[in-house]
Amino acid sequence: MIVLKLGGSVITDKERAETLDGDALDRAADAVAAALETPSESLADGLVVVHGGGSFGHYNASEHGVSTTAGTHDPTAIHDIHGAMKTLNAFVLSRLLEREVPAVPVHPFSAGHRDEEGELQLPTGQVTTLLEEGFVPVLHGDVIGHAGQGATIVSGDELVVELATSLEADRIGLCSTVPGVLDDDGVIDRIESYEAVEDVLGESEATDVTGGMAAKVQALLALEADASIFGLDGLASFLDGTEPGSTIE
Amino acid sequence: MIVLKLGGSVITDKERAETLDGDALDRAADAVAAALETPSESLADGLVVVHGGGSFGHYNASEHGVSTTAGTHDPTAIHDIHGAMKTLNAFVLSRLLEREVPAVPVHPFSAGHRDEEGELQLPTGQVTTLLEEGFVPVLHGDVIGHAGQGATIVSGDELVVELATSLEADRIGLCSTVPGVLDDDGVIDRIESYEAVEDVLGESEATDVTGGMAAKVQALLALEADASIFGLDGLASFLDGTEPGSTIE
C-alpha cells in the first residue's frame, strides 16, 4: 500500500490564515481519483492520505505558542488548533468524496498520544481495518495529548513516517511545493545518504521539525520503503507506479 | 476515576431529528462543572464523559440501515452518521467549555475498530494521557470500522463498558431519562444479579443493543466497579460521591 502526504503548503495559501488553495486541492483530488479508478500494483492494498496544516494549523499553533515540543494545557488552544485542522480535513474529504474516493477521517488527537519521552504512540488497528474494508483513511497534522506537556503538535511528516512503518507501506509519496530535492543542477534523482545532500540541505535545524526538507530527508532515509518527494505535477505519475522527483532509498 | 454516560435521550429531543435538548444539556454541564470545582475522592483521578446519539446518531443510522451488526461500505452513510455525532459532540463540548470544564473530543471512529468477531478494539493510551494531563475526554456513540462489515455502530453504552474496564474506573454513572431501574414499588436501590430484575426488565432483546435497560444492566453487572443508573436530578449527587438511583454491583 501507499502512504501519500499532501503538503500543507500545497493545498493551502500559506500567506493567508485559514485559506484553502482550492485549485491545487482539486488537482490533487483529480490525480487520486484517477489513480484509484485503474489502480497500479502498489495501490492494490490501499491508500492512506496524510495532509499537513499549511495556513490552517500553523497559524493557530503559533498564535498559541504550541509546537512539537512546547505543549499547552489550555483547552481553548487545543480546540483552536484541532478545529482548524478538522476544517481543512473536511475540505480535503469533500473534494475526494465528490470524485467518489471513499475517503474517511482519522483524527490523530482522537487516536494517539506522546509518551513522557515525546515518542509518538499511534495505534493503527482502525487504519488497517478501514483500508481492508476499501476506504481511504485521511489523517492530518494535529494537536496531540503529550504526557507531562498537556498537548503538543504532531506534524503530517511525523505521521507519514509512523504510518509507513507500522503499516509496512510499499511506497511513500510526499507531494510538495517543489519538484523534489534540488541542487544547482535541478532535481536530485536518487538520495542514498544524508551526507550526499548535506551541502544543499544544510544541517537539520530545530525550527524545521514540522516541515523542512532536511528533516524530511533524514526521516525518510531511515524507512524500509522507498520514498519520493515531488511536486503536484508528479502526483499522477507517482500513483501510477513511477518515481517522479527525488527518490529517497 | 469516573466514567459518566450522558444518555442520548437525556441531552436531545428524541422525537425530532438532530434536535438538542439545550436545557437538559445545560443542567448536566452545570452539575459536571460544579463537581469538578470541589472534586469528590473518586473524581480526583479524573472524569471521562461518554454521550449517546439520541436524535442525532439514531436518526442517521436508521436512515442508512446501519446498526451494531449491520454494516455499510458507503462513505456517505459514514459521513452522515459520524458528522451528526460530531455535531452533537461539539454542542456537549461547548457547554462544558463555557463552564471552564477542560473538555476535549475523542472520536471513536478515529480511535478504534471492530475485529472479525465484532469485538470492539479501543486503544485507550490517548484517553489516559489526556486524563493525566487534567483534561476531560468526551467520547460518543459513533460509527466504527468493522472487519468484514465496512463500518457499524458503536453505542455509548458499549464504550462505557469498554472504558470502565480498560481504565479501571472506580465508579460508573449512567445519567438516563428515568431515575433508575423501576419496579412496581419505584426505583430498585441495588441490583446484584440479572435474575432479580428479569421480571421487570424482561429478556434482553437484539433490538435493544444500543440502549435498552436490560442490556445496560447485564453489561454493568459484568463490571468490576459499581455502576449507578439515575436521572438528571441525581447527577450532581452521583458526582459528589453518593449512589442515587439504582446501583448495579
TrEMBL record, chains A, B:
Keyword vocabulary terms for this entry: ATP-binding, Isoprene biosynthesis, Kinase, Nucleotide-binding, Transferase
Binding site for ATP: K5, L6, G7, G8, S9, G54, G212, K216
Keyword Mitochondrion among record annotations: no
Site (Transition state stabilizer): K14
Enzyme class: transferase
Record-linked InterPro entries: AceGlu_kinase-like_sf, Asp/Glu/Uridylate_kinase, Fosfomycin_R_FomA-type
Highest taxon, organism lineage: Archaea
Statement: the UniProt record of this protein carries the keyword Transferase: yes
GO cellular component, one term: cytosol
EC number: 2.7.4.26
Domain Aspartate/glutamate/uridylate kinase, residue spans: 1-223
NCBIfam families (alphabetical): IPPK_Arch (NF040647)
Subunit structure: Homodimer.
Function: Catalyzes the phosphorylation of isopentenyl phosphate (IP) to isopentenyl diphosphate (IPP). Functions in an alternate mevalonate (MVA) pathway leading to IPP, a key precursor for the biosynthesis of isoprenoid compounds such as archaeal membrane lipids.
Protein name as annotated: Isopentenyl phosphate kinase
Organism of derivation: Natronococcus pandeyae
